[in-house]
Amino acid sequence: MSDPTKVKDEILHDHNHDGIDRRGFLKCMAWAGTGALCVMHGGVLKSYSLSSLAVIGDKEAKGDLSFVQISDSHLGFNKPANPDVAGTLKAAVDKINALPTPPEFMLHTGDISHLSKAEEFDAVEQILKSAKPKDVFYVPGEHDVLNDEGAQFRQRFAKGSLGAGWQSFDKKGVHFIGLVNVMNLKSGGMGSLGKEQLEWLENDVGRLSKSTPIVVFAHIPLWSVYPEWGWGTEDSAQALGYLKKFGSVTVLNGHIHQTMQKVEGNITFHTAASTAFPQPKPGAAPAPGPMKVPDDQLRGLLGVTDVKHVQGQHALAVVDSSLA
Amino acid sequence: MKRVGIAAAIIVALAIGSAVSMSLQIASAKGLRHTGPAAVAPGVPDPAKRDGFRAPGASTAEIKIDNFTFTPASLTVPVDTQVTWINRDDIPHTVVSDDKAIKSKALDTDDKFTFTFNKTGTYTYFCSLHPKMKGTVVVQ
After folding, report:
1. From the CA of A286, how many Å to the nearest CA of chain B?
2. CB contact (8 A) between residue A230 and residue B91
3. ipTM value for the complex
4. Using an 8 Å Cβ cutoff, are B9 and B38 in contact?
């Protein structure tokens, strides 16, 4: 495992909305066992790779509100790409617990389990109990709603949610919205929110002032990462349309097992790494299945981040970092 | 190599559907040879799998799920064929017809799902977890 103290101040991304011309498609790979720390500074969300936490200043890490996103723990997966997904989830928790300022809560953006089995859900809950943040907000991945239309997921992880498990809540002036886009998928299609959820979303944000910072979290990306592999959500444009009036919107997704960022107008999109196994870059393999890397690399790459972010006065630079 | 196998399987399926001349043209045009395990014809009764309980003339066929792909993507079989899907991926998949009349549970690695097609017609199906995965069974 790499020594975190040797990692320079790596910041995955940092988005202001004041004249930064850093749009377009920024992509990179991240590796199992990582997660992201998200910190709100005056309505602007910054996120840091967990490997860089040892070198982030206390003041910087504290912010107005901090929380952690983890994703795609796939408990129950036991194939060569990672025969010990429980171990790597524990490693992610250890990273979270090493934060100088404990985050207030966690978001899990789905694929908690591999096969929606009770013992898989149990194992995740048990491992996450050892995390310092006690509150976890979940949205389901397609692996969490197998065979029962998500009934078990909602009973365990989304009590009080609406519909298929969507919800919203407020934390220190930030409005969080958890969306479900893994249900009722149509042949040939991608992720789907559906009419009922979209209506709920429109009403949910309709009452908010434009200055309210918004964080949306959902499993499948809400932007078209790679439609050929279904890495997108068919009706996301309608959802994002309801969020256009807000000054700061951050969208957090999982599903693709690698980090990617994109800025589009007022909306910044992020996907988180999996804690279980990596998947190929879009189009880099015949199919988006688990990617086997040499055993010594899977663990050895824990916490290695692949994008460095150097903060300037107003403009920010995102630089691909090597995995060395 | 794999693609050759897939094409060969489709060609054999077409041949069963009496499209012999067309399939031969395809085969000669692409220089394909019927080699490898995928060349075993889907839809053709496999004597080794027959048992005493199946009605005479009933047949079986297999569709493999591998690399997020149904193979063959299009399968033509006689009526009353028992079709079995087998998942060879590290990721679970499902088999769900577009009209939802056929619906498997999630198939983990090496799990199988079997459905017997009693009526002629064209059945289009997909994986409800990865809906870009689509396939067709033509029952004649």
Report:
1. 7
2. no
3. 0.77
4. yes
